[in-house]
Amino acid sequence: MDEDTNIKPPVWFWVIAIVALLWNLMGFWDWYNSITMNANYLKNFDAEMLGYLKAMAISFGYQFMASAKPVYTGMMWVMTALIWAIAVFLVWFAKMAKGKGWLG
């Protein structure tokens, strides 16, 4: 057997991996409920935000970002930056873990 296959990742690797999995599952859940217009999910939004969600579902985000009110625009850019930062971190994390032999 090859020695590389016996390398065990540290506990913090599993913590980050589980948090990343939960983050991505929450994102999928939010996307799925927005696209399918789930009634239980949508009852939490006011009429104006529902209009933005419908516009986003139709145009896949471009018009949603372009036509949103300034009060929503700031938070959308913050969330967009956060999502990109987490995505970049997870790509780096996966490459680092593969380089250390923790991933097959």
Q: Beta fraction of the residues?
A: under 5%
- Helix and strand sequence: HHHHH
Structure class: mainly alpha
Poorly predicted ranges (pLDDT <50, ≥5 residues)? none
Question: Which key phrases capture this entry?
Answer:
104 residues; mainly alpha; 5 helices
Describe the protein's topology.
Layout: H1 11-36, H2 39-42, H3 47-59, H4 62-67, H5 70-99
Account of the protein in words:
- The protein is mainly α and 104 residues long.
- The protein has one domain (9-99).
- The chain has helices at residues 11-36, 39-42, 47-59, 62-67, 70-99.
- The longest helix has 30 residues, at 70-99.
- The radius of gyration is 19 Å and the shape is elongated.
- The protein starts with 10 loop residues before the first helix and ends in a 5-residue tail after the last helix.
- The model has no long low-confidence stretch (mean pLDDT 78).
